[in-house]
């Protein structure tokens, strides 16, 4: 192979950015996995949710779990997450990333006892935008916003 046709070697900056993108996305996916476990059992204890979520994101999940528990609702099935890093800043401290997700809840049911209480007209595929940042050296989801007006 001649030198002019050789593939360029990725720069160190590109490698660092890709590693950060992977870590931010891993935090998002970890949060979703642990969130599903928590919603199945109706509580976050016994999950690793705090390993992936913090700040407003953790508060939102805990608040939802409290409200569902109070209503006697738990969830069955699985949601599907199609997430990507839509922006990243590895030069700031803390490092920050924005996640854009299409959350598909067509396989997810709200249950009261053995009765499916999922709202018939509920939007089942919608957009979620999340903020992920480093806390120390670990990436964690710190907030998210659900937008059921934008289906995906």
Report what the structure shows:
This protein is an alpha+beta fold. The protein has a single domain (13-147), classed as Roll (Nuclear Transport Factor 2, Chain: A), CATH 3.10.450. It is built from three helices and seven strands, in the order H-H-H-E-E-E-E-E-E-E. It has helices spanning 12-41, 49-52, 55-71, and strands at residues 73-77, 80-89, 96-104, 108-112, 115-116, 125-135, 138-147. The strands form two sheets. It has a four-stranded antiparallel sheet. The radius of gyration is 18 Å and the shape is elongated. The chain starts with 11 loop residues before the first helix and ends in a 5-residue tail after the last strand. The model is unreliable at 1-5 (pLDDT under 50).
Alpha-carbon distance between the two ends: 45 Å
Give the class from helix and strand content and strand pairing: alpha+beta
CATH architecture: Roll
Mean pLDDT across all amino acids: 92
Could you state the order of secondary-structure elements as H and E?
HHHEEEEEEE
What percent of residues are in strands? 25-35%
User: Which outline best applies?
Assistant: elongated
Low-confidence stretches: 1-5
Concise account of the structure shown:
The chain has 152 residues and is an alpha+beta fold. It has 3 helices and 7 strands, in the order αααβββββββ.
């Amino acid at each position: 192979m001649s030198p002019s046709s050789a593939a360029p070697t990725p720069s160190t900056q590109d490698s660092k950015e890709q590693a950060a993108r992977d870590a931010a996305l891993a935090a998002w996916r970890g949060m979703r996995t642990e969130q599903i476990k928590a919603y199945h059992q109706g509580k976050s204890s016994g999950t690793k949710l705090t390993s992936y979520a913090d700040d407003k994101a953790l508060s939102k999940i805990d608040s939802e779990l409290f409200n569902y528990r109070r209503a006697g609702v738990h969830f069955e099935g699985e949601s599907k997450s199609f997430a990507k890093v839509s922006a990243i800043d590895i030069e700031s401290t803390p490092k920050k990333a924005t996640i854009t997700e299409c959350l598909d809840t067509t396989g997810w049911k709200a249950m009261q006892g053995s009765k499916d209480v999922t709202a018939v007209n509920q939007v089942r595929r919608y957009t979620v935008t999340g903020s992920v940042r480093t806390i120390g050296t670990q990436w964690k989801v710190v907030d998210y916003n659900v937008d059921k007006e934008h289906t995906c």
